[in-house]
Structures
1.
Amino acid sequence: MDNNQILQRLTAVVEKHLGAVTIDNARPLTGGAASSTWKFDVVGGDGRRSLILRCAETEEQISTGLQKSLEAQVQQAAFVGGVPAAEVLFTLAPSDQLGDGYVMDCLAGESIPRKILRNKEFDCVRPNLAAQCGSILARIHALTPPKELSVLTAAEQIRRQAADYRQYNQPLPVFELALRWLERNQPKQNNLTLVHGDFRNGNLLVTPEQGINGVLDWELAHQGDPMEDLGWLCVNSWRFGNRHLPVGGFGSREALFAAYEQAAGIKVDSKAVHFWEVFGVLKWGVICLFMCKADMKNDICSVERAAIGRRVSETEVDLLTLLAAGVES
Amino acid sequence: MIEEIPTVGQLLKSVATLLSNEISPALAQQDLQFKVRIAVNVLAIIEREWQQGPQVAEEEVAMVNALLGTDNHDLKALRAELAEAIMNGQYDDDLSALATRLLPNACSRLSIDNPLYSTLLELQK
């Protein structure tokens, strides 16, 4: 499918759902490794509205993400439940010939972590971001998960990471140590809730006025331990150099936990959050390994993927720092 | 190591300088400029591995041999053996002590891949 064809089909499906409108300014967006995303404006009776088309990439499915119709269902449930998420307008049908995808509102905000952490215009909202994350996560965890969402317990997720890592036949003692520690330190099962699955700096839309204005990328949503989202948010790779601010590089665990507890009315299980942070570092390490290996053909991979392959040692040091006694993490 | 002139380091630096100072500014596409930046970074990894790699590997061989009580010089085999020992529970008594022992060499390897990584800078303080 070339871009002209996509545009033609997009126009047809938008007219089907929204009536006679003109499509303007349509352009593909970079980012979202496993999705192909378009931004466009519809111009009609009510004026101009910016929308997003989010489709599954057909060629190379990196993630084990949800079908887009289910992802849209989760995202819409979040929108209706008061979570800052884009409203879903409609889901694509096979007859639309655009693949698996959906169309949603385009929310304002910056998602590039380094800009959120360094640009002056965010100075005002940055100190509140960790607390905002806490109350948004509490709201997500209070939603009723669609029954179709898989239940992913800690044990199941450890098993999956171990299988993914071992298939590359590249033994890494640090990964083995982390897997062993995770197996032996599983949190007792907290309540099963909806889990976003990829709630981190990079998937948050931030505006200078409101702070967090949108939560993106619902494709890894599942049912599980709510503490998983809090731990993943603290993984050092998502602090983008601001190691001293464990929550996304912008805030403290105390601020995150306090806001979560206030909104959720339950106590944060900080040991479980630590477990999920360790798990998250390992998961990111396995993804780095995967990105490079999966791309490798005849012993060659792209320079971007090659560089990501060399980020495995970052996760090794983060894992050991988390697990070694007496090292500040 | 044979020190031909220019050295491997000097050769790599000449290519990196060409890419950064001449090729990149001539590129119209931003995504290509981004790729060139990554390529320059990859050249820096190669240079550091050329300089520090042999010593870091030796350090790892010595550390793993000390842990396992072996005298093997094949790093890949040693890693596999240690990985298996961990998987089989041989270090379950004190996983955090094992983490402490593995940390210095992991830091040395990270110094090759990304010497400015936040955790590494923190540990070096």
Note: The mean pLDDT of chain B is 95.
2.
Amino acid sequence: MGSITLQKVSKVFGEAKVIPSIDLDIRDGEFVVFVGPSGCGKSTLLRLIAGLEDVSGGKIVIDGRDATEKAPSERGLAMVFQSYALYPHMSVRNNIAFPLKMAGMDKAEIDRKVNDAARVLNLGDYLDRKPRQLSGGQRQRVAIGRAIVRQPSAFLFDEPLSNLDAALRVNMRIEISELHQQLKTTMVYVTHDQVEAMTMADKIVVLNRGNIEQVGSPLELYRSPRNLFVAGFIGSPKMNFIRGQNAAQLNAHTIGIRPEHVLLSTESGDWKGKVTVAEHLGSDTFLHVDVDGIGMVTARSNGDFASKAGDTVYLTPDKTRIHKFNESGLAI
Amino acid sequence: MARKVTTQRKVIMTAIAWALAILIFFPILWTFLTSFKSEADAIASPPQFLFFHWTTENYAEVQSRSNYLSHFMNSVVISFGSTLIGLIIAIPAAWAMAFAPTKRTKDVLMWMLSTKMMPPVGALIPIYLMFRNSGLLDTRTGLVIVLTLINLPIIVWMLYTYFKEIPGEILEAARMDGASLAKEIIYVLTPMAVPGIASTLLLNIILAWNEAFWTLNLTASKAAPLTAFIASYSSPEGLFYAKLSAASTMAIAPILILGWFSQKQLVRGLTFGAVK
């Protein structure tokens, strides 16, 4: 079991209203990702769920029971921190055993569970080492081990991969996804990296200034963003926004078109422009084009498209993939 | 780019450093040498450096005239006692200030430190009267209390700076792992802060050991520690340099030995956690 419900949850730090009021349902077994720019309140929201911060108003219900006033240790949740937060003076074995020891479990049982967790996470050879003798990836695994041993009703991850290098991040992302499939336990994951959000989540919660902008599956958010913020935040490179006449023609205040939905050509197309920057990634080419009468537009093509800065190119947006927004930024 | 250091410059710098070190160390060395002189040699002019008649009679004299061991035990009880009680009070206080600060925490810390800026003599009369009325004059208990209070701001400050270096996330992790506040402090915070606690302990034992103002003013004979023992040899009836030196050497020797063996911890302590 691991359902979490937030009812009108708010958080105020002094004068600053970090989270005005949030309602959210997290179902048992779901992988939910909170994503948003820095300072959007996503980590605060996670810490409110954990009980590391007190709510200023509203209710947090975990597994059908009101947990608003409960101490972190009484909520049955486990957390993995960005800095790993391992106990530096304890061996890997004692780090993983710590929550079980706190729960007063007997020694034989603790040993069995620690060994199981170590096997799942490939930590068997490192059990007697201290955290400082481990690499970043191994430390993160220990932190995850410490979280899984006591079979919590939900896992909370606070930007767990942001201290790892790019290659390791991809591996750990896959490991965490596999772990979720294996354990089928609710996971709440905070990140500012929308690639992590898109690849791991069952459900993404996009946050901005303490408010939920949209909740949905990764593809729902990608295909039908509810407003300009979500449209701009989900997808990489970012969606192009065009205002003025081109938008007015489609009865919108702003139109949005993703770079991958703009067809590039060196011969003909709807819009003509000059390449200002060309990014060749091998598999893809991103061209930043200064389009006559529109401004900067980013377009994506396959890696073979050999334009360089200063070249003239033609762009044709895929009409069926244009997103329309009204004056207040909401999707029409 | 590393700065070029010529050999000549190196030699000069080394010589200056040695000269300064010897200058600072000289009074202690002189005290030590004087303690082995006869009273006549001790005041001889010009002073005799090494070629005098070495004698241990001062030590024997000091030992027979006063009870060194009882003063020594008073010093031990007072310095260790006040430091331990201070730590027991300061650990939770520093925990609260480091990990659960409020708007006023910085002010409280400054206020605590500011009490150390006041000349102690300003508080002598009220404290003396309080001690007299409550029967604490010339008792070990009284001195433990007063030295605990005198050094508490320093203990809290030192622990506070050490605790500040411990990432709060680790304590939060302990809380998530089901540790109560007491278990969090016992199993996680204290072991991580052991180097800091150890240097705080050492430094405060030394401070309490050498504290002279309160120990001299609040004791007569029963609870008098080694500071009072030294002072008893500089009496108005006439100075006995050799015996005073012998008493001083005996008084500072234990703490000097303790300091020597704990140099590494002490340097950390004295730099207030600035060196990581």
Note: The mean pLDDT of chain A is 91.
